[in-house]
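Marked as duplicate of an earlier ticket. Keeping the data here for the record.
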Amino acid sequence: MNSEKKKTDKDMVERNALRLGAVGNVVMALAAWLTYYASNSEAILLDGNYSFIIFVGMLVALAIARVRSRRTATFPLGQYFYESLYGFIKGLMMIGVITMAVVTSVVRIVFYVVGSTGNIPMLNPDPILYYALGMAAICFALSFFYRSRNRRIGNQSIILSTDTRAAFVDGVLSLGIAVGVFFLRNADPAGSAGFVPYLADSIITLILAGLLMGSPIGIVRDAVVELAGGTIQNPEDRETIQAAVLDAVRSPFVHDSSYISKTGSRYLVVSTVSVEDEGSGSIPVRALEQMRRRLREQLETLYPHLIVEFILRSTDHQSGLAAENQPE
């Protein structure tokens, strides 16, 4: 009962955070579209479209939060893989936005080098500056909010973790736009910095892209590992769970190995143990079950969606007995 309450609290915190994030992103999308018409900036239009895509993605995330723990004949362990799939798609979207910004910047630099400055659109900088500063503030506030909500539930939400990084990336890009526009407004086109009105935003965008690309790549990498059933990638979680396993294994058992994986917010711990005195001929099945319960009670506060299995190593008289639990 206590475990179910913790799961309900976690889901409620996550859904409330996503609802606020959805409102924030649709506001940013509307602001970007209005700024685009006032400034003639394709970059702002792209930023607005990106915010709208995030808004739609959050609606999808809310749907995932409702069904992920639902067990069916097809998915008897729940549907947590949707969380990892969401992270994978969101990471690809972030990579796509950054890549498009890089391509646009490179094209503008090439135009300037070959003397085709007429192909570089001259912008109305004032609306862009106000927009960028406002959007940076909103994005950083959302990133901080997502992070604080995720910490409240033990950093167990891959959805909030993904959106924390996505909002931070969007905020840094908006701040970069503001810096570029500031230089644009104060540069003298006839002076030694005559390239600034044409290339300031492109140069800053390339620098930011180099600094930020690692975040979505990490999101995609972790999501692929989870979807493929690989071992857990977070070293802190791995060490915490491994230490709990070693602490839970008591005589007459000896710990042999552990497989720890994560799919979305569901954790799977499979530990193989053997009996110290294999010649005794007795298999303490009740002790094995008590050990499993002890491990689950120790970990369920941090990992509400937890599956624990202990497998007794097969010998001539031990045929792979297992103590296991199904997700609650």
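See parent ticket for discussion. The radius of gyration is 26 Å.
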